[in-house]
Amino acid sequence: DAMVIQNPRYQVTQFGKPVTLSCSQTLNHNVMYWYQQKSSQAPKLLFHYYDKDFNNEADTPDNFQSRRPNTSFCFLDIRSPGLGDAAMYLCATSREGGAAYGYTFGSGTRLTVV
Amino acid sequence: DAKTTQPPSMDCAEGRAANLPCNHSTISGNEYVYWYRQIHSQGPQYIIHGLKNNETNEMASLIITEDRKSSTLILPHATLRDTAVYYCIVRVATYGGATNKLIFGTGTLLAVQP
User: I want to staple B107 with a disulfide (CB 3.0 to 4.6 A). Which of A72, A114, B85, B102 is the partner?
Assistant: First the structure.
């Protein structure tokens, strides 16, 4: 089945050690999103790609970067993780261009910073 | 910022209809209302979306008021597996409308009781 896949499901990293989370999709959607969800909070949009165009949310810290080498893959890089970056990171995709479509989410990567 | 407000929690008896309200008084004319739910530690799951008309699918019904300032998600026969956080979301345009993004509100925790 077409889907959004996030790897790994659980990631433990050391304080200050760079970490990369990955997302892949088989839906051929042109837009990919990264959300951060802290415990008992709603998902918060960090940034998204419309094709190769990157759109950062105004309050996303510089510590968070993203890469999208092709349509299928998108990466979230945290350059120097702090304890406050421990969260579930969700990837989502959508197909844009006129009508309203559903957004498909992955199962998320739960990041622990030690 | 989120454009929706929802009650933080609701209870519903198993087998009864669950009616989840949402206010979106600042919604613009071309902005869609989406509903997602999130079961603990999983990615959000799409339920339904609409613009002006009421919508129904195999999961739920969406009732949007004529002035579009509020909506209600109806789960016709709630089961224990419907216990989740339900998010009412207004899809916000970016890039002058070329693409869109989902900005989550705080959601409603629906607890279905046996």
Answer: B85
pLDDT in the model for residue A96: 74
Whether residues B41 and A33 touch (CB distance < 8 A) is answered with: no
Question: Considering only CB atoms, which chain A residues are within 8 Å of B107?
Answer: 42
pLDDT at B95: 63
- Looking at residue B97, what is its pLDDT? 60
Residue closest to A1 by CA, chosen among A37, A30, A26:
A26
Residues β-bridged to residue B110 = B10, B84
Q: Which one of A37, A41, A103 makes the best mutation probe of the B interface by having the most chain B beta carbons within 10 Å?
A: A103
Question: How far apart (Å, rounded) are the C-alpha atoms in residues B112 and B114?
Answer: 7
Contact B32 A108 (CB under 8 A): no
Residue A106: closest CA among A61, A75, A63, A70: A75
Question: Mind listing the pLDDT tens digit for each residue in A16-56?
Answer: 999 999 999 999 999 999 999 999 899 999 999 999 999 99
B53 touches A: beta carbon within 8 Å: no
| Inter-chain residue contact B103 with A94, CB threshold 8 Å | no
Query: What percent helix, strand, coil does chain A show, rounded to 5?
Result: 5, 50, 45
